[in-house]
Design a protein that fits this description.
131 residues; mainly beta; four-stranded antiparallel β-sheet; 7 strands; 11% helix
Length: 131
């Protein structure tokens, strides 16, 4: 009986807690892995990336906030809910490290207790080549 109670207690901590280091199945925002196509200064460029929250079936209920650093001149970004699009006609060539920052906030967040998600922000750096 004691073993069953102890096992139940430990399992509930592991599966329902997101406090580090107990976050076994992390619920956190994620940007998709993506290899950007090579662009040209003479052509319109477009690529999009979709964000999600890992292990969170209600990720459509969250608000997604993006910021981008490192875009070459001529490109801009546009946000459509969970998708960020990089587009435009670049006017400079080179290899660019583009960092996309993502913050999420949602109706399930309790500001007194950050146990809903393991993390509320992430970032990822992508390489863009413009010829």
């Amino acid at each position: 009986m004691k073993k069953t109670l102890l096992l139940s207690f430990l399992l509930s901590i592991l599966f329902f807690s997101c406090r580090e280091p107990l976050c076994i199945f992390p619920r956190e925002p994620e940007l998709a892995n993506r290899e950007f196509p090579i662009g040209s200064t003479e052509s319109y460029y477009y690529v999009d990336i979709t964000a999600e929250i890992n292990n969170e079936p209600r990720d459509d209920d969250y608000d997604y906030y993006f910021d981008v650093v490192g875009l070459p001149e001529g490109l801009d970004y546009y946000v459509n809910y969970r998708t960020i699009s990089l587009e435009g006609t670049p006017i400079e060539s080179g290899t660019f490290d583009i960092t996309i920052y993502l913050d999420v906030d949602g109706p399930f967040r309790d500001f007194d207790d950050d146990s809903d998600l393991c993390n509320y922000s992430t970032s990822k750096t992508y390489t863009l080549i413009i010829e």
